[in-house]
Write a structure and sequence with these properties.
183 residues; YbaK protein; 9 strands; 26% helix; globular
Length: 183
Amino acid sequence: MELTLETGRPSDTTGRLEKEIRVYDFLDSLNIPYQRVDHEALMTIEACKDVDKILDAVICKNLFLCNRQETNFYLLLLPGDKKFKTKEISSQLGVARLSFGNETYMEKYLDITPGSVSVLGLMNDKEHHVQLLIDEDLLKEPYIGCHPCINTSSLKIDMKDMMEKIIPAMEHEPIFVKLGQEE
């Protein structure tokens, strides 16, 4: 399949899910410019490598996490090539033990499924069940690559727009963390 970099939302939305269209509506309402690549379903960071090259943006690893009691939920954004250690993030947050969150909560709070996890899912979390965590190294990147809540498209968004317009509009104040300190 030929991967093509497009600007903005698809002109034909036939066959696209409502949650994907809501992302385009949201970005357009904020006047956020973005580029898009449509592709086959990508379930892992490794599968995103070709799309990464076309977007020329760091593909962001998005991890949906929770505490042992499943009462606190987190969305951790970190560079795709960075290793994640639960102990490291748990100690920075002062949380006993974090693990990967159940997909039931992921769908309930963010309206996304495994393989499609994205910071843009926070636009669906109106009741603020999920705390946004961002690895500081991600902020060094000029652009961020993320899914529009579905893993058959990837978006390239200016990091400045993400931090100054999109995240504030979703009303999720991030906590910044430093991962990879224990290497």
